[in-house]
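Fold this sequence, please.
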Amino acid sequence: MSPEKPNVRYRLLRSWALRSRDVQWLLRRMEGAVETWTGAVLNKGLRNGEKEALSIDLYDASFRPDNDHDGLYPWERLWLERRLPPPPAALLIGAAGGGREAAALRSLGYDVHAFEPSASAFRLCQQTLGAEAVDRASYGDLVATVLRGEDTPLRLAPNAEFDAVLLGWGSFGHVLQRTERCELLRACDRITPNGPILLSIFHPKTAAMANGTYYTPWGGFLAQPAVEELEQHAKALNRKLIVSLQSPSSYATLV
């Protein structure tokens, strides 16, 4: 069957489709350029603490509840089955977002306590888990509470211990300084002396990189610690590092 000869209507729509393609390509180029430029300006103008605060604010502004309740991803489920102690183990989940991981793990029988610094995500997490099971707190609060004994919004009993600590998906990269990542892992080690510490590092699809950090308009600044750094952290804590590479996130366990 021979194709119909192009008519005027087809030629007009074909021309429109081709022009639309070119416009979309140009807009993507412009979007990437704006993202790179914005990241460079912010990276130069903000202190590290301000970058982390901006990352929380951007995540808060970009948060959509309907994107946070699709259960565990397949790679997460396999990872957690391998590395977590069996339920009803007590888990501390940091940067819990809207409670996606926490809710799934609770449904499996785990005793979950979570915390999240973003206001929008915290409210959803609180609705999901209940007010007693989640605090609006940050990794800085965890360090201050556990290592320095300070009063923070993170409600942990003195000398609290958990069977495992899970740092919510990709959140370890939001800790921008190596010294602060070391402190965070020390705090985790302190409250789970006999259990695993699980973390993951998100790989953004962006070229907006400066001084070892990436900038994304939805999540702010992200660092990408190398495996060598994680091995040194693990060694300092007398732990063993187990690393897996899995798109879109590299994930690791300190056991």
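The mean pLDDT is 90. The radius of gyration is 22 Å.
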